[in-house]
Amino acid sequence: MKGEYLFGSVAVVVNRYPKGILAVMLVLAMIAIGFMTTIPSQTMSDEYMDKQSPAGIVYDLYNNRYGQDSYILLIKAPNPADPEFLTDLLLLEEQIGRINRVSSVVSIADIVAENHGGTIPGTSAEVQAIIDNLPPDTQIQFVPDRQTALAYVLINQGVSTDASQNIEPFVVTTIEQATLPPGVSVELTGNTPYNIQIEDAMLTDFSVLIIASLVFMLVVKYLLYSKIRFWILPVVLLIFGLFYTFGIMGILGVPANDGALAAFPILLGLGIDYGVQFHMRFDDERRHSDASSALTETLTKTGPAVLIALGATSLGFIAMFITPIPMIQTFATVSILGIVCCYLTSLFGFGAFVHLLRYEPKPPGKGIPDRLMTAYDAGLSWIVTSVVKIAAPVVLVAVIIAAAGIAMDPSIPIDASENSFAPPDLPAQVVADQVQSVSGSLTPLPLYVRGINTMTVTGIWWTDRLCTELTNNYNEISSISSLSSLVRSYNSGVLPANQAELNRVLLSIPPDQLKLYQLDDTTSVIVINTLSMTINEQRAFSDNVVKDIAWLEPPPGAEIVPTGDFTLYTIMTDQIVEKKDQMTVLGFVLIFLYLLVVYRKGVALTPLVPIICVIGWNPLAMIALGQDYSILTAVLGSMTIGVGSEYTILVMERYMEEHRRSGDRTQAIREAVRKVGSAVVVSGLVTAAGFSALMLSSFPILSGFGLATVILVIFSLIGAAVIMPATLALTGRRSGKMRPPTAGEGPQRT
User: Fold this and answer.
1) How far apart are the C-alpha atoms of 362 and 617, rounded to whole Å?
2) Between vectors from CA 553 to CA 551 and to CA 554, what angle results, nearest 5°?
3) How many Cβ atoms from other residues are within 10 Å of residue 177's Cβ?
4) Buried b vs exposed e over 563-579: b needs ≥16 C-beta within 10 Å?
5) What is the largest CA-CA distance in the chain?
6) Distance CA 687, CA 683 (A)
7) Which end is more exposed in the chain, N or C (fewer Cβ atoms within 10 Å of the end residue's Cβ)?
8) Do residues 127 and 83 touch, judged by C-beta distance below 8 A?
9) What confidence score (pLDDT) does residue 370 get?
């Protein structure tokens, strides 16, 4: 067959030039390390939203024209009315105001000075008297209690929240260097500082967890695999594969966003699995043949099997590209690049290393790893023998349970909010919660208006009608800012009745205030400030606002669109809800067609049965454990197809090989699971051990992803070791007594 000829040629090259191959691998690794420095970063909005979509285009238009980010200083002071404190606070405001692209800073110190002739009173009693005479809303906004003050840093209009991230470090440094009275502390929060703090804390946490994952994986690998000589070799091959992956990311410009980070543990598991498959097959072959012959047999038999499994795994990840969320697309891209690099590294590098190391199998021993693997082999053989005898009930029960899980899957909530990222006791989250409890959500909902000139009487009255309607309809709204509210504030609380009167009022308003709401005759903005809401409440609120706008019948040609950072999470959640099941179905259909094309026979579809079971079992486990879907676990169905198909295809490939050799169906199933199953279970448990470290994370999104993936791997192992043998047994019985294929007959591959 062409496949065997191709892999036989690879074996000839590896057997003949092992040192040359290792030299090439080292050179490529050094080149890859050089390109790793060119891996681009990605802003949060580019990571979560497709900027080519209508919502993405409006988002950028709004941010680049009207967006005005703001930071909030949460100030704890023994006495906010202390004149010394207020004087130092004015000095801090002045220093922050000098930072490039900072528009203004306002605090209670400005309010007090404004009400005292531009100076701070000399006593606390005078200051407190001024504060007590302020309107209640102003008091809450600037001095919510007797030990807390809030200050607001406004960034220049048109500086997007993504660009605002470059300003935040300068504000932090200025605060740290400020001289304030004893007992005064200042914490920086707001939408952008909060996101930066969360990202930094998550990256640090993730880095520690990756190291812990590697340690866990090495410990488990040693316990289960050290009876094999050079048990660390698959890890060495994995490291080469990761270098190549990151180098290609730099060459192709694949960004290092959260999706790329999430793919890293996947690569650890699948990358080690490829090395383990080659290693265990070679160790078995080497016990009764020389190194070159053993390597040839390994590459010509295991190479095609793992390649077919890799193709199916890739299709599971390819299905993720139907989602418009860039982070998920990056996750799929990095996963595919990684498994291809790890496969090629194992295919060429493994044989080169065993020649260089003059590999000799270890003799049977009596250590802990030997006893564990002996017990495992005996237990696995007993399970397979038992399952084959009761194959029909096993498959029936498994499928019924899976059907129940698939039916219950839509009931699992999806949480893509900011709170799903951070633990409630994280300092950044604590500060944000304190501020939101006083001033409402850190993220307002802007409405980007096109086709209405609010500087006309007709336009401003319609805008005012919309703002009034929304304020009356929703208790979640704390305030609405628009050109109509600005005009009212400069016209004794009423709107002008004619154009001449409106023009007079507009001329009295400073241009810097006017441009916050309208820059030209065709676009304007309305800013809705809300109370803090959950992501599902935000989604419902945004949808209802859109319905109310439609009910009010905007003028012909007008368009009013919710946008801003508020919509980053609502749109992303809507897209997850819409695409989650579609990704799973598409992945399943792709693998179904793939297996038909590759094998062209009915038995080749048997891997789909365990995959269906695992897809259905996962939701039941999540419900039992009280887990919600996050942006990472939303791809679990498609990821299940990718990971689960690899395990089951490897078992099926070895079954077909053993059946060609013996002609005994039951014996072929037992040998396939014992030989390939050992490697699959070892690599699966190593992968599960690695992901278990993520469960220790204090970040809900990481711990949830770790738990979901551990469950996925365990269920996939059960599917490969239990459901797959039962399915093969049923397939054999249905097709009648299976004859041994003639010499050279085997699966037909394209």
Assistant:
1) 39
2) 130
3) 9
4) bbbbbbbbbbbbbbeeb
5) 103
6) 6
7) C
8) yes
9) 67
80 with 149: CB under 8 angstroms?
Answer: yes
Distance CA 635, CA 600 (A): 29
DSSP characters over 127-147: HHHHHHTS-HHHHHHH-SBTT
Report residue 285 as tokens.
């072959």
User: What confidence score (pLDDT) does residue 164 get?
Assistant: 86
pLDDT at res. 741: 41
Residue 179 burial (10 A CB sphere; 0-12, 13-18, 19+)? exposed
- How many residues can be counted in the chain? 750
Number of C-beta neighbours around residue 365 at 10 A: 11
Kindly report, residue by residue over 164-189, the tens digit of the pLDDT.
888 999 999 999 999 899 999 999 98
pLDDT at 83: 94
167 HSE (CA, 13 A, CB side): 25
Beta strands 559-562; 70-76: pairing state: unpaired
**DSSP code string of 355-397:** HHTT--PPPP--SHHHHHHHHHHHHHHHHHHHHHHTHHHHHHH
For residue 319, the model assigns a pLDDT of 92
- Which segments of the chain have a pLDDT < 50? 736-750
Helix residue spans in 600-635 (DSSP H): 608-624
User: What per-residue confidence (pLDDT) applies to 737?
Assistant: 45
Distance CA 96, CA 98 (A): 5
Q: Are 714 and 702 in contact (CB under 8 A)?
A: no
| Beta bridge pairs of residue 74 | 150, 187
Hey, what are 439's tokens? 């001033």
Handedness of CA 153, 156, 158, 164 (dihedral sign): negative
In this prediction the pTM is 0.82
Amino acid, single-letter form, for residue 367: G
Instruction: Tell me what percent of the residues of the chain surpass a pLDDT of 70.
Output: 94
C-alpha closest to that of 535 among 428, 598, 628, 456: 628
Q: Give the other-Cβ count within 10 Å of 211's Cβ.
A: 11
For residue 129, what are its two tokens?
């008297």
- Tokens representing 38 are 């060119």
Q: Could you give the dihedral angle defined by the CA atoms of residues 36, 40, 43 and 45, in that order, rounded to the nearest 10 degrees? A: -110
CA–CA distances in Å: residue 345 to residues 69, 342, 468, 525, 627? 47, 5, 65, 55, 37
User: Nearest 5°: CA angle at 373, between 367 and 375?
Assistant: 100
Query: CA–CA separation, 314 vs 709, rounded Å?
Result: 17
pLDDT of residue 417: 66
Question: Exposed, middle or buried, 72 (CB in 10 Å: 0-12/13-18/19+)?
Answer: buried
- In the numeric block, the tokens 């007594």 are attached to 737
| C-alpha span between 627 and 637 (Å, rounded) | 15
β pairing state of 523-530 and 445-450: antiparallel
HSE-up of 400 (CA within 13 Å, CB side)?
6
- Tell me the C-alpha distance between 697 and 700, whole Å: 7
Contacts of 93 (CB under 8 A, 6+ apart): 105, 106, 107, 109, 110, 151
pLDDT in the model for residue 749: 42
Coil/strand/helix, residue 715: helix
118's tokens: 């531009």
Please state, in angstroms and rounded to a whole number, the distance separating the CA atoms of residues 629 and 705.
Answer: 9
For residue 634, give the DSSP letter. G
SS3 content of the chain, % helix, strand, coil (to 5): 70, 5, 25
Cα angle 260-266-269, degrees, rounded to a multiple of 5: 145
Q: How many CA atoms are closer than 13 Å to the CA of 602, on its beta-carbon side?
A: 8
Which pLDDT does position 419 carry in this prediction?
Answer: 64
Helix locations, 226-286, DSSP H: 233-252, 258-286
| Residue-level pLDDT at 337 | 96
pLDDT digits (tens, 9 = 90+) for 4-39: 778 999 999 999 999 999 999 999 999 999 999 899
